Amino acid sequence: MQVKTARRWYYWHKWTSLVCTLFLLMLSLTGLPLIFHEEIDHLTMDMKEVVLDKNAPDILLDSLAVRAQQEHPAEHIRYVFWDADHPGMVTFDLADKPDAPPDHSHYVSLNEKTGEIMGKPRTDTLIYKILELHTDMFLGIGGKLFLGLMGILFMIALISGVMLYGPIMRKFDFGMVRKYKSKRLKWLDTHNLLGIVILAWTAVVGFTGIINAMSDVVLGLWQQGQLKEMVAPYEGQKPITRPYSSLDEALATAKKAAPNMDASIITFPGTMFSSQHHYAVFMRGKTALTARLLMPALIDAKTGTLTDIRKMPWYVNTLFISEPLHFGDYGGMTLKIIWALFDIATIIVLITGLYLWWVRRKSEKTRWNNLVPKKI
Q1: Which of 48, 84, 186, 265 shows the greatest Cβ crowding within 10 Å of its Cβ?
Q2: Hey, what domains does the chain have and what are their CATH numbers?
Q3: Low pLDDT (below 70) residues in the chain
Q4: Where are the transmembrane segments (predicted)?
Protein backbone atom coordinates (compact mmCIF):
# COMPACT_ATOMS: atom_id res chain seq x y z
CA MET A 1 0.00 0.00 0.00
CA GLN A 2 1.37 3.44 -0.91
CA VAL A 3 2.26 5.78 1.95
CA LYS A 4 -0.30 8.40 0.90
CA THR A 5 -3.06 5.79 0.66
CA ALA A 6 -2.15 4.31 4.04
CA ARG A 7 -2.13 7.76 5.61
CA ARG A 8 -5.54 8.49 4.11
CA TRP A 9 -6.99 5.26 5.55
CA TYR A 10 -5.35 6.07 8.89
CA TYR A 11 -7.05 9.45 9.11
CA TRP A 12 -10.42 7.96 8.11
CA HIS A 13 -10.03 5.33 10.82
CA LYS A 14 -8.82 7.79 13.44
CA TRP A 15 -11.48 10.45 13.07
CA THR A 16 -14.51 8.25 12.45
CA SER A 17 -13.50 6.16 15.47
CA LEU A 18 -12.96 9.21 17.68
CA VAL A 19 -16.33 10.72 16.81
CA CYS A 20 -18.36 7.55 17.44
CA THR A 21 -16.39 5.62 20.08
CA LEU A 22 -18.01 7.05 23.22
CA PHE A 23 -21.49 6.46 21.80
CA LEU A 24 -20.54 2.94 20.69
CA LEU A 25 -19.17 2.26 24.16
CA MET A 26 -22.54 3.33 25.60
CA LEU A 27 -24.35 1.09 23.10
CA SER A 28 -22.09 -1.88 23.89
CA LEU A 29 -22.49 -1.47 27.66
CA THR A 30 -26.28 -1.09 27.47
CA GLY A 31 -26.52 -3.82 24.84
CA LEU A 32 -24.97 -6.41 27.16
CA PRO A 33 -27.97 -6.68 29.56
CA LEU A 34 -30.39 -6.27 26.66
CA ILE A 35 -29.10 -9.53 25.15
CA PHE A 36 -30.61 -11.25 28.20
CA HIS A 37 -33.66 -8.99 28.51
CA GLU A 38 -36.11 -11.90 28.47
CA GLU A 39 -34.33 -13.68 31.32
CA ILE A 40 -34.03 -10.42 33.30
CA ASP A 41 -37.73 -9.65 32.77
CA HIS A 42 -38.58 -13.14 33.98
CA LEU A 43 -36.67 -12.55 37.21
CA THR A 44 -37.78 -8.98 37.87
CA MET A 45 -41.43 -9.00 36.76
CA ASP A 46 -44.19 -10.60 38.78
CA MET A 47 -45.44 -12.91 36.02
CA LYS A 48 -46.99 -16.33 36.51
CA GLU A 49 -46.13 -19.33 34.37
CA VAL A 50 -48.88 -20.56 32.05
CA VAL A 51 -49.88 -24.17 32.70
CA LEU A 52 -51.30 -25.38 29.40
CA ASP A 53 -54.25 -27.72 29.24
CA LYS A 54 -54.45 -28.51 25.54
CA ASN A 55 -57.82 -30.17 25.92
CA ALA A 56 -59.44 -27.11 27.50
CA PRO A 57 -61.14 -24.71 25.08
CA ASP A 58 -59.88 -21.16 24.70
CA ILE A 59 -61.97 -18.44 26.28
CA LEU A 60 -63.44 -16.05 23.74
CA LEU A 61 -61.08 -13.16 22.98
CA ASP A 62 -63.95 -10.71 23.52
CA SER A 63 -64.41 -12.08 27.05
CA LEU A 64 -60.69 -11.76 27.76
CA ALA A 65 -60.83 -8.18 26.50
CA VAL A 66 -63.61 -7.40 28.95
CA ARG A 67 -61.52 -8.92 31.76
CA ALA A 68 -58.52 -6.79 30.81
CA GLN A 69 -60.70 -3.69 30.55
CA GLN A 70 -61.89 -4.21 34.14
CA GLU A 71 -58.33 -3.69 35.37
CA HIS A 72 -58.21 -0.21 33.80
CA PRO A 73 -61.84 0.90 33.36
CA ALA A 74 -60.94 4.50 32.39
CA GLU A 75 -58.84 3.33 29.45
CA HIS A 76 -59.41 1.45 26.21
CA ILE A 77 -57.68 -1.50 24.57
CA ARG A 78 -55.59 -0.56 21.57
CA TYR A 79 -53.33 -3.61 20.99
CA VAL A 80 -53.56 -7.35 21.58
CA PHE A 81 -50.29 -9.37 21.57
CA TRP A 82 -49.38 -13.04 21.38
CA ASP A 83 -45.79 -13.93 22.28
CA ALA A 84 -44.50 -17.13 20.66
CA ASP A 85 -42.19 -17.64 23.66
CA HIS A 86 -45.19 -17.70 26.04
CA PRO A 87 -47.83 -19.96 24.48
CA GLY A 88 -51.25 -19.78 26.07
CA MET A 89 -50.84 -16.14 27.11
CA VAL A 90 -52.39 -13.07 25.51
CA THR A 91 -51.47 -9.49 26.48
CA PHE A 92 -53.67 -6.40 26.18
CA ASP A 93 -52.31 -2.86 25.85
CA LEU A 94 -54.63 -0.20 27.27
CA ALA A 95 -54.28 3.60 27.15
CA ASP A 96 -56.44 6.70 27.39
CA LYS A 97 -56.08 7.47 23.66
CA PRO A 98 -55.33 5.27 20.61
CA ASP A 99 -52.34 7.45 19.67
CA ALA A 100 -50.95 7.85 23.20
CA PRO A 101 -47.15 7.36 23.50
CA PRO A 102 -45.89 3.91 24.60
CA ASP A 103 -45.04 5.05 28.13
CA HIS A 104 -48.75 5.79 28.71
CA SER A 105 -49.69 2.15 28.19
CA HIS A 106 -50.84 -0.29 30.83
CA TYR A 107 -50.54 -4.01 30.13
CA VAL A 108 -52.56 -7.00 31.30
CA SER A 109 -51.52 -10.57 30.46
CA LEU A 110 -54.17 -13.30 30.65
CA ASN A 111 -54.28 -17.08 30.40
CA GLU A 112 -56.20 -17.91 27.20
CA LYS A 113 -57.67 -21.07 28.75
CA THR A 114 -58.72 -19.81 32.18
CA GLY A 115 -58.85 -16.01 31.92
CA GLU A 116 -56.57 -15.78 34.95
CA ILE A 117 -54.40 -12.67 35.14
CA MET A 118 -50.82 -13.86 34.70
CA GLY A 119 -49.23 -10.48 35.32
CA LYS A 120 -49.10 -6.81 34.42
CA PRO A 121 -45.90 -6.05 32.49
CA ARG A 122 -44.46 -2.62 33.28
CA THR A 123 -42.47 -0.08 31.29
CA ASP A 124 -40.88 1.62 34.30
CA THR A 125 -38.32 -1.13 34.93
CA LEU A 126 -34.56 -0.66 34.76
CA ILE A 127 -34.24 -2.90 31.69
CA TYR A 128 -36.83 -0.80 29.85
CA LYS A 129 -34.93 2.40 30.68
CA ILE A 130 -31.72 0.76 29.45
CA LEU A 131 -33.55 -0.12 26.22
CA GLU A 132 -34.65 3.51 25.79
CA LEU A 133 -31.08 4.71 26.36
CA HIS A 134 -29.81 2.16 23.86
CA THR A 135 -32.33 2.95 21.13
CA ASP A 136 -32.70 6.74 21.26
CA MET A 137 -30.92 8.14 24.38
CA PHE A 138 -34.36 9.36 25.59
CA LEU A 139 -34.47 11.78 22.62
CA GLY A 140 -37.06 10.08 20.42
CA ILE A 141 -36.59 9.95 16.65
CA GLY A 142 -33.80 12.53 16.80
CA GLY A 143 -31.79 10.29 19.10
CA LYS A 144 -32.43 7.26 16.86
CA LEU A 145 -31.23 9.05 13.74
CA PHE A 146 -28.16 10.38 15.56
CA LEU A 147 -27.22 6.87 16.70
CA GLY A 148 -27.82 5.69 13.14
CA LEU A 149 -25.27 8.26 11.99
CA MET A 150 -22.82 6.98 14.61
CA GLY A 151 -23.44 3.50 13.21
CA ILE A 152 -22.48 4.69 9.72
CA LEU A 153 -19.26 6.21 11.09
CA PHE A 154 -18.60 2.89 12.86
CA MET A 155 -18.92 0.99 9.58
CA ILE A 156 -16.43 3.39 7.96
CA ALA A 157 -14.08 2.84 10.91
CA LEU A 158 -14.36 -0.95 10.39
CA ILE A 159 -13.59 -0.72 6.68
CA SER A 160 -10.64 1.63 7.18
CA GLY A 161 -9.33 -0.57 10.01
CA VAL A 162 -9.35 -3.61 7.72
CA MET A 163 -7.56 -1.64 4.99
CA LEU A 164 -4.83 -0.75 7.47
CA TYR A 165 -4.57 -4.17 9.14
CA GLY A 166 -4.11 -6.22 5.96
CA PRO A 167 -0.77 -4.69 4.80
CA ILE A 168 0.56 -4.60 8.39
CA MET A 169 0.01 -8.33 8.93
CA ARG A 170 1.91 -9.25 5.78
CA LYS A 171 5.04 -8.52 7.80
CA PHE A 172 3.99 -10.44 10.93
CA ASP A 173 2.29 -13.69 11.95
CA PHE A 174 -1.49 -13.53 12.36
CA GLY A 175 -2.48 -13.11 15.99
CA MET A 176 0.85 -11.61 16.99
CA VAL A 177 0.85 -9.67 20.28
CA ARG A 178 4.20 -8.09 21.14
CA LYS A 179 4.01 -8.65 24.92
CA TYR A 180 7.66 -7.89 25.62
CA LYS A 181 7.83 -4.63 23.70
CA SER A 182 6.36 -1.35 24.87
CA LYS A 183 2.98 -1.20 26.62
CA ARG A 184 1.58 0.77 23.71
CA LEU A 185 2.59 -1.90 21.17
CA LYS A 186 1.05 -4.63 23.31
CA TRP A 187 -2.30 -2.81 23.43
CA LEU A 188 -2.07 -1.91 19.75
CA ASP A 189 -1.65 -5.58 18.80
CA THR A 190 -4.47 -6.56 21.17
CA HIS A 191 -6.72 -3.89 19.65
CA ASN A 192 -5.93 -5.05 16.12
CA LEU A 193 -6.27 -8.77 16.89
CA LEU A 194 -9.62 -8.51 18.68
CA GLY A 195 -10.89 -6.10 16.05
CA ILE A 196 -10.20 -8.50 13.18
CA VAL A 197 -11.49 -11.57 15.09
CA ILE A 198 -14.87 -9.97 15.81
CA LEU A 199 -15.04 -8.13 12.48
CA ALA A 200 -17.93 -10.18 11.03
CA TRP A 201 -19.96 -9.83 14.24
CA THR A 202 -19.37 -6.08 14.59
CA ALA A 203 -20.29 -5.60 10.93
CA VAL A 204 -23.57 -7.51 11.38
CA VAL A 205 -24.50 -5.76 14.64
CA GLY A 206 -23.43 -2.37 13.30
CA PHE A 207 -25.42 -2.76 10.08
CA THR A 208 -28.55 -4.07 11.82
CA GLY A 209 -28.21 -1.25 14.36
CA ILE A 210 -28.33 1.30 11.54
CA ILE A 211 -31.46 -0.38 10.15
CA ASN A 212 -33.10 -0.42 13.61
CA ALA A 213 -32.30 3.27 14.05
CA MET A 214 -34.39 3.89 10.91
CA SER A 215 -37.47 2.14 12.37
CA ASP A 216 -39.54 5.34 12.62
CA VAL A 217 -38.64 6.24 9.04
CA VAL A 218 -39.57 2.72 7.88
CA LEU A 219 -42.90 2.96 9.75
CA GLY A 220 -43.61 6.31 8.10
CA LEU A 221 -42.83 4.92 4.65
CA TRP A 222 -45.16 1.97 5.27
CA GLN A 223 -47.94 4.24 6.56
CA GLN A 224 -47.70 6.57 3.56
CA GLY A 225 -47.23 3.71 1.10
CA GLN A 226 -48.81 0.29 1.55
CA LEU A 227 -51.16 1.14 4.44
CA LYS A 228 -52.47 4.23 2.63
CA GLU A 229 -53.21 2.10 -0.44
CA MET A 230 -54.98 -0.54 1.63
CA VAL A 231 -57.33 1.95 3.31
CA ALA A 232 -57.88 4.16 0.24
CA PRO A 233 -61.54 3.03 -0.20
CA TYR A 234 -62.33 4.59 3.22
CA GLU A 235 -60.78 7.97 2.43
CA GLY A 236 -63.07 10.83 3.40
CA GLN A 237 -65.28 8.74 5.68
CA LYS A 238 -65.76 9.72 9.30
CA PRO A 239 -63.77 7.66 11.85
CA ILE A 240 -65.85 4.91 13.40
CA THR A 241 -66.66 4.96 17.09
CA ARG A 242 -66.95 2.24 19.72
CA PRO A 243 -68.38 -0.32 20.13
CA TYR A 244 -66.43 -2.20 17.45
CA SER A 245 -67.25 -5.57 15.94
CA SER A 246 -66.17 -8.82 17.60
CA LEU A 247 -62.44 -9.47 18.10
CA ASP A 248 -63.09 -13.18 17.71
CA GLU A 249 -64.73 -12.65 14.33
CA ALA A 250 -61.87 -10.42 13.18
CA LEU A 251 -59.32 -13.03 14.29
CA ALA A 252 -61.22 -15.86 12.59
CA THR A 253 -61.48 -13.85 9.36
CA ALA A 254 -57.73 -13.16 9.36
CA LYS A 255 -56.91 -16.83 10.02
CA LYS A 256 -59.18 -17.88 7.16
CA ALA A 257 -57.35 -15.47 4.84
CA ALA A 258 -53.92 -16.75 6.02
CA PRO A 259 -54.59 -20.37 7.09
CA ASN A 260 -50.94 -21.36 7.53
CA MET A 261 -50.10 -18.48 9.84
CA ASP A 262 -50.68 -17.53 13.48
CA ALA A 263 -51.88 -14.23 14.91
CA SER A 264 -49.19 -11.99 16.36
CA ILE A 265 -50.83 -8.62 16.99
CA ILE A 266 -54.25 -7.05 16.66
CA THR A 267 -54.19 -3.25 16.43
CA PHE A 268 -57.36 -1.24 17.03
CA PRO A 269 -58.73 1.62 14.92
CA GLY A 270 -56.88 4.91 15.37
CA THR A 271 -53.52 3.41 16.27
CA MET A 272 -50.38 4.03 14.22
CA PHE A 273 -50.47 0.52 12.75
CA SER A 274 -54.06 0.68 11.53
CA SER A 275 -56.61 3.15 10.17
CA GLN A 276 -59.58 4.95 11.68
CA HIS A 277 -61.87 2.16 10.42
CA HIS A 278 -60.00 -1.14 10.79
CA TYR A 279 -58.63 -3.76 13.02
CA ALA A 280 -55.20 -4.70 11.62
CA VAL A 281 -54.51 -8.36 12.40
CA PHE A 282 -50.82 -9.05 11.85
CA MET A 283 -50.21 -12.70 11.01
CA ARG A 284 -46.82 -14.44 11.31
CA GLY A 285 -45.31 -17.66 9.97
CA LYS A 286 -44.52 -20.76 11.98
CA THR A 287 -40.80 -21.23 11.28
CA ALA A 288 -37.90 -19.52 13.07
CA LEU A 289 -37.51 -17.04 10.20
CA THR A 290 -41.09 -16.52 9.04
CA ALA A 291 -42.22 -15.99 12.63
CA ARG A 292 -40.36 -12.67 12.40
CA LEU A 293 -42.21 -11.60 9.23
CA LEU A 294 -45.71 -10.15 9.54
CA MET A 295 -48.61 -9.94 7.10
CA PRO A 296 -51.33 -7.36 7.86
CA ALA A 297 -54.96 -8.26 7.33
CA LEU A 298 -57.32 -5.28 7.54
CA ILE A 299 -60.73 -6.08 9.02
CA ASP A 300 -63.55 -3.52 8.93
CA ALA A 301 -64.12 -2.83 12.63
CA LYS A 302 -67.86 -2.27 12.11
CA THR A 303 -68.80 -5.14 9.80
CA GLY A 304 -66.02 -7.63 10.62
CA THR A 305 -65.28 -8.22 6.92
CA LEU A 306 -61.84 -8.55 5.36
CA THR A 307 -60.98 -5.53 3.22
CA ASP A 308 -57.35 -6.29 2.29
CA ILE A 309 -54.40 -8.53 3.14
CA ARG A 310 -50.87 -8.12 1.76
CA LYS A 311 -47.29 -9.13 2.36
CA MET A 312 -45.15 -6.42 3.91
CA PRO A 313 -42.74 -4.50 1.62
CA TRP A 314 -39.10 -5.61 1.55
CA TYR A 315 -37.87 -2.65 3.62
CA VAL A 316 -40.25 -3.51 6.48
CA ASN A 317 -39.25 -7.19 6.37
CA THR A 318 -35.60 -6.12 6.49
CA LEU A 319 -36.36 -4.27 9.71
CA PHE A 320 -38.23 -7.26 11.17
CA ILE A 321 -35.29 -9.56 10.47
CA SER A 322 -32.63 -7.15 11.70
CA GLU A 323 -34.19 -6.46 15.12
CA PRO A 324 -33.76 -9.96 16.63
CA LEU A 325 -30.45 -10.48 14.81
CA HIS A 326 -29.09 -7.32 16.44
CA PHE A 327 -29.67 -8.77 19.94
CA GLY A 328 -28.98 -12.43 19.12
CA ASP A 329 -32.57 -13.57 19.63
CA TYR A 330 -32.51 -16.34 17.01
CA GLY A 331 -30.66 -19.20 18.69
CA GLY A 332 -31.66 -19.41 22.34
CA MET A 333 -29.24 -19.12 25.26
CA THR A 334 -26.22 -20.46 23.35
CA LEU A 335 -26.36 -17.68 20.77
CA LYS A 336 -27.00 -15.09 23.48
CA ILE A 337 -23.84 -16.13 25.33
CA ILE A 338 -21.85 -15.91 22.08
CA TRP A 339 -23.33 -12.46 21.46
CA ALA A 340 -22.37 -11.40 24.99
CA LEU A 341 -18.75 -12.57 24.54
CA PHE A 342 -18.46 -10.67 21.27
CA ASP A 343 -19.99 -7.62 22.96
CA ILE A 344 -17.37 -7.75 25.74
CA ALA A 345 -14.62 -8.06 23.12
CA THR A 346 -16.05 -4.98 21.38
CA ILE A 347 -15.91 -3.03 24.65
CA ILE A 348 -12.22 -3.97 24.99
CA VAL A 349 -11.53 -2.86 21.39
CA LEU A 350 -13.22 0.49 22.02
CA ILE A 351 -11.38 1.11 25.29
CA THR A 352 -7.99 0.14 23.85
CA GLY A 353 -8.69 2.39 20.86
CA LEU A 354 -9.26 5.35 23.18
CA TYR A 355 -6.11 4.44 25.14
CA LEU A 356 -3.99 4.27 21.98
CA TRP A 357 -5.30 7.64 20.79
CA TRP A 358 -4.57 9.23 24.18
CA VAL A 359 -1.03 7.80 24.38
CA ARG A 360 -0.23 8.90 20.82
CA ARG A 361 -1.63 12.36 21.45
CA LYS A 362 0.40 12.68 24.64
CA SER A 363 3.53 11.51 22.82
CA GLU A 364 3.03 13.98 19.98
CA LYS A 365 2.45 16.82 22.45
CA THR A 366 5.67 15.95 24.31
CA ARG A 367 7.60 15.79 21.03
CA TRP A 368 6.25 19.18 19.98
CA ASN A 369 7.14 20.74 23.33
CA ASN A 370 10.68 19.45 22.99
CA LEU A 371 11.00 21.03 19.55
CA VAL A 372 9.80 24.47 20.68
CA PRO A 373 12.72 26.47 22.15
CA LYS A 374 12.23 27.42 25.76
CA LYS A 375 12.32 31.07 26.74
CA ILE A 376 15.32 32.13 28.83
Answers
A1: 265
A2: 1-45+125-366 (no CATH), 46-124 (3.10.450)
A3: 1-3, 166-181, 331, 363-376
A4: 12-36, 145-166, 187-211, 337-358
